[in-house]
Amino acid sequence: MNISYIQRSNLQRTIYVVAGLLIALLAIGCAISQDDANTVRVIRVVDGDTLEVNLQGTKEKVRLIGVDTPETVHPTIGEEPYGREASNFTKEKLTGQKVVLEFDVEERDRYGRLLAYVWLDGEMFNEVLLSEGYAQIATYPPNVRYVERFQAAQQEAREAERGLWGIIEEEPVTAQGERLESSNWLGNANTKKFHYPDCQHGQRTKSHNQVWFDFRQEALDAGYEPCGVCKP
Q: Is the pLDDT of residue 167 over 90?
């Protein structure tokens, strides 16, 4: 038996093992460094889906990706139903907390805000807002990494009538004040979109633009497209 050959083989195996361990440690170190770089403290909660954080010594405004909570501070819309509850929930959970920001394809919106998935103690807070009924899905490509998870969370909250899904809305009324008890879909004559009556985007439709449909196909035949948020 060639002892020199055995020694070389053992040495090669040792080198491969050590190299593998070094690569693994390097990968772990990079992951930890990335988490550290994106770990921030929440300074202030602006509303249910917008935060101010301290990122490496700089104050940044963060908009949560993929979710839309009812408005509380909008200059023209004002306060929407369940907006204060959503804002208070986010304040209670995140104010002063250390969270990890996860970015998608686009890191900032047109207002300069960071766009992020916000992780707290291993849970994605964007998803929590949906599953607890404090938000609706608001998908803006290309930031769609978790859209299927978000859809499942919203569906669960909706079926359980949790949060904003449990609000009992008044029966829809036309611009002329005529009550339409049988109408199931709200169309916006300006945008040519139609919505579920409880969709917050549909509820923003001005009265003179409201068109009510008894059947989904009726809306489609009239040239209306389904809302991309509530997906009627």
A: no
